[in-house]
Amino acid sequence: MADDKDSDQADRPDRPRSEPEIIPPQRNRAGADQPPYIWLSTEENSGTQRIFVTRPGPFAIIAALAVIGLVVAAIVLVLLGAILIWIPVVIFIISAVLLRQYWRRLQNWFAQG
């Protein structure tokens, strides 16, 4: 009976030792909203870091779209390059097969004549 209890506890994941603290946005004395931020504390440095999280502006959206466009263009160029390399290879293989068939017909024609 004790073995079943131990195996059940071994199968369950450990609970976290501490829960994350969620701090709601604060307002200053005048009642205006402060910019949103996240506090990070690290043990290596005894200081605290502040990270500002804001909505992206028009320039950031345009820059992100430009980067995405460049990545898509690079992928399209690589695919087109691969296709352009394979076109002559396929033409060469087809022509080699056809020439081989014509060569055998020509040999048979000379052998009969």
Describe the structure in your own words.
The protein is mainly alpha-helical. 0% of the residues are buried. The chain starts with a helix and ends with a helix. The chain has a two-stranded antiparallel sheet. The protein has one domain (2-112). The protein is 58% helix and 9% strand. The radius of gyration is 35 Å and the shape is elongated.
Number of DSSP-assigned strands: 2
What fraction of residues sit in β-strands? 5-15%
Number of helices: 2
Shape annotation: elongated
Which structural class should the secondary elements be placed in?
A: mainly alpha
Taking the sheet with the most strands, its summary is: 2 strands, antiparallel
Q: What is the domain tally?
A: 1
- How far is the N terminus from the C terminus? 97 Å
Give the low-pLDDT segments.
Answer: none
> Considering DSSP H and I runs of 4 or more, what fraction of the residues is helical?
55-70%
Strand order of the largest sheet: 1-2
- Mean pLDDT across residues: 77
Order of helices and strands: HEEH
Radius of gyration: 35 Å
List keywords for this structure.
2 strands; 113 residues; mainly alpha; elongated; single chain
Summarize the structure.
This protein has two helices and two strands.
